[in-house]
Design the sequence.
């Protein structure tokens, strides 16, 4: 079911300062998405590529409520993976599948307490 580690998303308060730091470490910005919250705050997520082409990404986020590290796992079909994983009563769903710019996403807490984000079509 899990295909690859898509990215690790880390929270930062000063996203531009963090971007400058990780650029200096050799990572390059590959994409940026800005989304508005209901209160008008516009938060950003920025994808950073490592020099090795087959590496996963590091993603920066300044979402004011999501102040934790997210491990994103690529699956073929998020809805299908959600349906299959829902058979396990020990999995707690934080967000059931929802559409994004590039497909679907779902968020769950594994039985060991770790949080994973499923991404895919």
Sequence:
């Amino acid at each position: 079911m899990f295909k690859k580690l898509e990215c690790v998303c880390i929270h930062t308060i000063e996203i531009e300062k963090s971007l400058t730091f990780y650029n200096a470490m050799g990572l390059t910005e590959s994409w940026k998405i800005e989304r508005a919250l209901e209160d008008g705050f516009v938060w950003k997520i920025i994808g950073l590529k490592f020099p090795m082409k087959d590496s996963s990404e590091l993603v920066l986020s300044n979402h004011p409520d999501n102040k934790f590290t997210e491990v994103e796992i690529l699956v073929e079909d998020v809805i299908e993976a959600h349906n299959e994983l829902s058979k396990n009563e020990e999995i707690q769903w934080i967000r059931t599948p929802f559409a994004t710019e590039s497909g679907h996403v779902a968020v769950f807490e594994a039985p060991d307490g770790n949080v994973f984000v499923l991404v895919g079509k």
Observations:
- The mean pLDDT is 94.
- The beta strands are 2-11, 28-36, 42-49, 57-61, 70-75, 92-100, 103-109, 115-120.
- Residues 15-24 form the longest helix (10 residues).
